Amino acid sequence: MLTIFANCVALAVYTPYPNSDSNDTNAQLEQIEIIFMVIFTLECFMKIIAYGLVSGVLDFVMQGNGAESGFDVKALRAFRVLRPLRLVSGVPSLQVVLNSIVKAMVPLLNIALLVVFVIIIYAIIGLELFSGELHFTCYNNETGSRMERPHPCDNGTAGFNCSQLNSEGKFFVCRDGWEGPNYGITNFDNFGLAMLTVFQCITMEGWTDMMYYIADAMGNSWQWIFFVSMIILGAFFVMNLILGVLSGEFSKEREKAKARGDFRKLREKQQIEEDLRGYLEWITHAEDLDLEEKDDKKESEDGRRLVLPGTSNRGAMSVASPTSLLLFLPLFSMRNSKPVEVDNDKGDDNDEAQQPSWWQKKKKGFDRINRRARRACRKAVKSQAFYWLIIVLVFLNTAVLASEHYHQPDWLSQFQDYTNLFFVVLFTCEMLLKMYSLGFQGYFVSLFNRFDCFVVISSITEVVLTSTEIMPPLGVSVLRCVRLLRVFKVTKYWRSLSNLVASLLNSIQSIASLLLLLFLFIIIFALLGMQVFGGRFNFNPTEDKPRHNFDNFVQAMLTVFQILTGEDWNVVMYDGIRAYGGVATPGIIACVYFIILFICGNYILLNVFLAIAVDNLADADALGDAEEEEGKEGEEGGEGERIEDGKMGVEGEEGIEEEEKTALNHIALRDGDTGSHTKVHLEEEREDGEKYGDYEGDEMGEEEEEDGDGEDRPQGMRPRRTSQLSTANKTKPLPPYSSFFIFSHTNRFRVFCHWICNHSLFSNVILVCILISSGMLAAEDPLRSDSQRNFILNNFDIFFTSVFTVEIFLKVVAYGFILHKGAFLRSAFNGLDLLVVAVSLISFSFKDGAISVVKILRVLRVLRPLRAINRAKGLKCVIVAIKTIGNIMLVTCLLEFMFAVIGVQLFKGKFFRCNDRSKALESECRGQYIMYHDGDITKPMVEKRVWEKNAFHFDNVAKAMLTLFTVSTFEGWPGLLYVSIDSNTEDIGPVHNYRPMVAVYYIIYIIIIAFFMVNIFVGFVIVTFQNEGEQEYKNCCLDKNQRNCIEFALKAKPVRRYIPKNRFQYKIWWFVTSQPFEYAIFVLIMLNTVSLAMKFRGEPEAYTHALDILNLIFTAVFALEFVLKIMAFRFKFYFLDPWNIFDFSVVLGSILDIAYSRLEYYFGDAWNVFDFIIVLGSFIDIVYSEVNYQGMSPMNKILHEVEVGTYLTTQNNRNLEVKREKTNSSSMTK
């Protein structure tokens, strides 16, 4: 393992240079590499001898590759760092995380097949629709040069027209010849590039650019449907299935690990009981021997005493039986307990004869005063007044820290320095007071006390270092911001927030294990990236090298981390492909590195964060429900689960001081849902008179209690009383109060209004009106407010507003307004309805003179679609889930505020720069300078120097929080990172790579906020949504699985199988339903899919003709299949299966396409739309057929996943002909 670690260090120290250049360090590392190769080769041969050749194949291949020197095999050396993963077997929490990932590989493989299926379908569609469209751009008609920033264009009027660029003496025309956007990497010219483009779009990076490129090339009519459907189906649905798999596997593995731990504890408990039983037998045997010698040793038996630690013989207690001795066994295991001594009364006279000395009397008096003072101090620090005093001081300290900003006045800086010293003194006094009252050992029991001690010591260190000018104040002053975490002490009296913090603390162990895996993952891919791409990102000598590169280990780790976050990962991939020659060379293979890195890092490892969050929040929610149930049972007088034993105090003949008692406080027994757990909680009073358990609870740490609760969490649904199942559509009763003090409970008009409001037809009509009115709001013309369309829509708006007003009137009459329980405005959703209707009515009452007020009020009409929430159960559950994220929002804002304060300390006033990089000061950034466009000295341009500040900065806390919020969204954070790395000191321009260590600030922030806390948001909404769905069955005696089983049984229908009676028809039926026929069709579908994917831009005419012939053959074969199935099943039973309908539509479209392909001269554009309608209809058919997917046989499932490619045959022939004609016409034009 040491050799592996040393090899990793050697790989990290290696510095790659362009063109295979090297230096002395690299040459020495090459020599050291020989030593590593010899060691690993010996290890490989020994493993082959010990375990056989098959087991040592990987090591053998790696050592063989290590003996070479080029990139192709040298890069594989980095895989040696995978060996430290063997350490996970010794870390249980790390093993849980890794096992959950490994166990998820099988279901993830199925999801991967589904993802590949979706990518193939969209790649083929893009290949048919957009092939060659992205190579047209605007050229200067005279000089032949391209436009300054090339993008696709259209010769027609649908897309971008080059005439918009025409100016005096410059005329632009749209023609072919451009490599395409993104160096020709993202296009649909062939199947491989189309798949890469679709995958990039599914990752939601650069998909909008591709959509706008297509719109520029072809117009913005229907093309957006392709990209929007791809994002919804691929990014929103298919990719999120990975989260579901990982969440389920992580939960299972944690349950298994918990079960293993419980079993281990049970075995240990049984072993202890066996040992205790042996001791009990020994003690019983000893008593029997004593009884036999009773007459001879009567005085000795009467004098036997049990002497407790800290007591004299006079305070001894006799032990008469082994049972009484067992009561004290827990006491002997205490940390400061002394052995039990059995003594006689012989020394009593000597003790009474001894007289205490003067020094002993003074010491005894001082100890008594000291105990009283400590007792008083302990009472003070345990009081709520002292606790809230510290909380107020923490908030005041926070406010002072938050007041720091750029260009603050001198008096504020002096005030901050004095208050900082003042708070340091106060918190130091608090720490010393607690240490004195609780004792050192008692003080450090609580984790919060340890944290306070660390903060105080760091604050004192900061004051000393800055006052003595040993260290500049910037670096150490950041430590004072850590005090802000003390605000979490307020959770002591905030139960829901305390439960949330407890669940976050329970996640720390799993999160730490995941971070270790993530760190190893980043190291592996950083070293591999250095070997593959190191020194290769130097493309243009006149331009700066991209900041994302692999030229050293630190920069490689930053680049890998950037790819993990998903921000601009595609841009890094473009540069990686360019480094090896671009798409026209085998360098396109470089994309494999980035795809594997993105999938394994972003989709697997980072989704484990969310899986951990969902799992822990679900446990915390279950724990909170269990506590509420226990509280209700206690209020009803039921017997609780916790059994408290009384304190078994031990006293002698004379009183013993309270601080010197040692007692077994209580034995807590709890029975969980999945098993019985016994928890023995021991509390021992020290000299300071404080219990271990009290430190935990009062100091807000509560680690033992939280851990104990974590062991006793309910693992499944608690058995509930059988009661009536509540229904979702239960009618809301009429409140037994008067409405508006006019309509009584039995008033006929009120009863009639209540009947109308609860009628299903009334609700459906209102819902339809809401949807139509919302659609009309979207149809308004925002540019011409007085247009005829807006006039008509405004009349419809008046009608719908009248309908909604009548609805509100009926509901207010039926339920009352607000005063009584169950009234209309007692529901927040009804309040939203009233607000929307009131805004609409007020906007109609204003005249045109108050146009600004009308606009403001009419803008509020956009809330109208929200009214549908109250009428849809699923939407209401989502809203309720969103309402419960207040605690998480508070914790996240507090953490973000802390990072913002630290950011102000680090970066205030440092994000200024001059556009002329040669000037570093604002005083120098004056006048004008010459800039050469693209480094071309023949194109000088005169620019004015401007001293500018970055759009996002840390000059004050508010702006810092906004900046950090943008970082948490991952949008543009690498640019801000490198601005921070280049930042110098206040009011001085940037220096390249001046402070690379500040990257740690951003990485920690992203891990805590973006990776964890943002996922806590998502996880909490998921858990709450699930719980809201379970509220319907709250008192049901069946659990979720049992309900699903019953629901499946109720909805199951028998499958009807048609078997013809006609002999000839039966033979055909037997043939089309046989396995050989299914396999033959499956093979034909695969071949058809391959033929569709074989198309590429610029293909030869003979190749195109061959594809046409294949298209005719496949169409004929599938038409024959259709005829055979019609003969076997007849029309009635054939069209009962949705799959057969889909097959028929595909075959019919293919035949029509072939029949009319010769007419494309006249109807080319129209048939474009026709083909797209076929594609869209096929997708609708696929969605419809998904209902029956789970009930299919394995062969039919495979056909379901592949046969979709069949409908694309309708496009093949026509598009080949169209492209051929376009090529011929364009050549004739030239």
From TrEMBL:
Might you report a single GO cellular component term? basolateral plasma membrane
Q: Where is this region: Disordered?
A: 625-731
* Localization annotation: Membrane
Q: Where is the composition biased (Acidic residues)?
A: 625-638, 651-660, 695-710
- One Pfam family of this chain: Ion_trans
Which residues lie in Basic and acidic residues bias regions? 639-650, 668-694
GO function term, MF aspect, one? metal ion binding
Any one GO BP annotation for this protein: calcium ion import across plasma membrane
SUPFAM superfamilies documented for this protein: Voltage-gated potassium channels
Query: Topology in the membrane?
Result: Multi-pass membrane protein
* Segments forming domain Ion transport: 1-257, 384-620, 759-1032, 1075-1156
User: Which positions, given as ranges, span the membrane?
Assistant: 34-54, 108-127, 224-246, 385-403, 415-433, 514-533, 583-606, 761-779, 791-814, 834-857, 878-902, 999-1025, 1068-1089, 1109-1127
In terms of superkingdom, the source organism counts as Eukaryota
- Binding positions (Ca(2+)): 205, 567, 971
Which InterPro entries does the UniProt record give? Ion_trans_dom, VDCC_alpha-1_subunit, VDCC_L_a1su, VDCCAlpha1, Volt_channel_dom_sf
Q: Which UniProt keywords apply?
A: Calcium, Calcium channel, Calcium transport, Ion channel, Ion transport, Membrane, Metal-binding, Repeat, Transmembrane, Transmembrane helix, Transport, Voltage-gated channel
The protein's job, in short, is:
Voltage-sensitive calcium channels (VSCC) mediate the entry of calcium ions into excitable cells and are also involved in a variety of calcium-dependent processes, including muscle contraction, hormone or neurotransmitter release, gene expression, cell motility, cell division and cell death.
Q: Which family does it belong to?
A: Belongs to the calcium channel alpha-1 subunit (TC 1.A.1.11) family.
| Record PANTHER family | VOLTAGE-DEPENDENT CALCIUM CHANNEL TYPE A SUBUNIT ALPHA-1, VOLTAGE-DEPENDENT CALCIUM CHANNEL TYPE D SUBUNIT ALPHA-1
What's the protein called, per UniProt? Voltage-dependent L-type calcium channel subunit alpha
